[in-house]
Design brief:
The chain has eight helices and no strands. The chain has about 200 residues and is mainly α. The protein has one domain: Four Helix Bundle (Hemerythrin (Met), subunit A) (Up-down Bundle). It starts with a helix and ends with a helix.
């Protein structure tokens, strides 16, 4: 929901940095994979209760996630690059709740609920993209230039990262935050299904 707004703020800076990296021959896919490796470091940090450092790692991962797209736009965007980016994003998003579950086993049920909701949002997002490709729908471009159709939703990248920040700053409230985020994720997934059904009726 907030992604289009945030993109307008951060894209100019990311594009300048992406241009600088692209000119020096840094491949976008290398940045994507580096971002995943950095993001996965958050799991042991969270598991050992190093929430402050884990938060920095999470934010650095998101910075690299923004840079890979900026580099791709200044070099040669590819369908595989977009595919690799979304795969790495989903692995990272799943890794963070896992870290909290290891850190506090009493909260594992809430982490599992959150992971289940992430599966729902991921399936609804990618499924909608498949439908859009089959119908020849074009991405509206509100989230910048993408390699495939990006369906909107109540919970998107910005909201998820804000939740991760709250998780790290107030880990004792993880069950409450995780429950709230999971509820909104399930709502987002359901809304995408209804939106896809509506678009199917109109086509």
């Amino acid at each position: 929901m907030l992604d289009p707004i945030i993109r307008r703020w951060i894209d100019p800076t990311l594009d300048r940095a992406g241009t600088w990296l692209a000119v020096r021959g840094i491949p976008a896919n290398a940045i994507t994979l580096t971002g995943l490796a950095v993001g996965l470091v958050a799991v042991p940090l969270l598991a050992f209760g190093q929430y402050g450092i884990a938060l920095l790692v999470i934010l650095f991962n998101r910075l690299l996630d923004g840079l890979d797209g900026a580099v791709a736009r200044r070099s040669r965007p590819s369908a595989f690059g977009g595919y690799l980016d979304i795969v790495c994003d989903m692995i990272f998003y799943a890794a963070v709740p896992l870290g909290f579950a290891i850190a506090q086993p009493d909260h594992a049920v809430w982490a599992a609920l959150l992971l289940a909701s992430f599966v729902g949002t991921c399936a609804s997002f990618l499924g909608r993209a498949i439908l859009a490709a089959g119908r020849g729908e074009r991405d509206p471009g509100k989230r910048g230039r993408k390699s495939f159709f990006h369906a909107s939703g109540l919970i998107e990248g910005t909201e998820t990262i804000l939740a991760f920040v709250l998780f790290c700053l107030l880990p004792q409230l993880f069950p409450w935050f995780a429950g709230a985020l999971a509820t909104l994720c399930f709502w987002s997934a359901a809304a995408r299904v209804f939106e896809a059904r509506s678009a199917d009726s109109e086509s």
